[in-house]
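During the no-cost extension, the postdoctoral fellow (Dr. R.K.) reprocessed legacy sequence entries with the updated structure-token encoder. One reprocessed record is reproduced below for audit purposes.
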Amino acid sequence: MRARHLIAAALLVALALPGVALADATTTHALRQALQRLQEAQRSGPPIPPATLSGLHDSIQRMTRDQVDPPLFRVDQAIFDARMAGLREERHQADQQGSLYPLQNQVRSLTRQYQSLQTEYANLRAQLANKTMSGAQTQHLQAEIQQQKQLLQQEEHRLAGLAGQPSATPNSTTAPPAAGYGKALTVYAQVRAASDGVHVTMPVDSLFGSDNRLSADGAQRLRAISGILKQASVSEILVRVSPQPLGANAATQRAETILRTLRRDGIPGQVLALATGAGLSTGVAELLLVNASQTP
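Re-encoded structure tokens follow.
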């Protein structure tokens, strides 16, 4: 409306005053078209930014003022056309940005869903791994328990058979004292009968970790050995550990740990004693069963 008023005012002035140059019909027509283009842009699109609108109004004013001078008018018209082209480009970019915005939101949403699924997948894999490990450990323990039951049953049958046999004569040949439970002990250690007793030997690494504490496997091994030794009658069990790289004190501490574990697992304390590990092979723990015989 402001530009239209300017055009009308300019025309009235040009017609009313004598001696004033009249506007060229071509420039007047071009000015009216420019005004119509501006009005159409204001009606058909989003609000024009104030700075852009101010520049367009300034171009209309200059075109109105210079319509009597075609060369200057053409310069003003070119400036107006450039500003209208800039307005169209701004609106085009705004339309593109508006169409991309939902897509960008969708991409962000899908990215969050993907990350959530990845986290859930990792949790499920961890749960499956834990269940698989737990199942494997359970199967291993069940197999070991079953093996122990079979060995104990065999030992009971053998003892029952021995109980029904006549006493051996002084000249008869008898099996070594460790013949019965010794077979069961071989599952967990090396067993050797000698004149001083029955030697039950194990690698130290199978009982201890990097320190003087029993490992989980070591504690389980000693528990099984204790269960077998309860079936035998011994006057003394000497606990021996070979000298360790960490020194004699480390060997003594490990021997004490083994002794305490055997006592806790049901071996009577009065038959347990510590002995020096001198003479043992490196990295060995040994239980020396003195005067071992089968429990009647």
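The beta strands are 190-194, 197-203, 232-233, 236-241, 272-274, 284-290, 293-294. Confidence is low (pLDDT under 50) at residues 10-20, 162-178. The remaining legacy entries will be reprocessed before the final report is submitted.
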